[in-house]
Amino acid sequence: MSCHPGHPDDRDPSKKANSLSPDAADVPTLAELFRLGQVVVLSATLPLAVIAARGFRDAPFGRVVRPLVPITLTYLAIAAIKLADPSMGADASRLLGSVAVVLIAWTAAQGILLLSGRRPR
Length: 121
Hints:
Residues 1-23 are annotated as: Disordered. Keywords: Membrane, Transmembrane, Transmembrane helix. The protein is mostly helical. It contains five helices and no strands. It has one domain (32-116).
């Protein structure tokens, strides 16, 4: 806003647009940037989950880390779907999120069984 009361840009808001500023459609929102960051981080952790699952495959701890791969994949799929097609985001979050929660509960149960010494063979 100008300090002069009669400045023409103050009267017409459409003239305030700067010709050098990008269109609003071209600039990603903060939520989209965070979602992209989430996809990048989950993509980077996926190989680590695979290495952990394969490395502990024959160990008693293997039952605890085995679901890390599908859990990471489900959260990666949720973030990628919301990034690519936000209209499908709610349904995908419910379905895939439910799968991830079940896998996390199974992982927690396996961890409890392992720590209590009651792990079935």
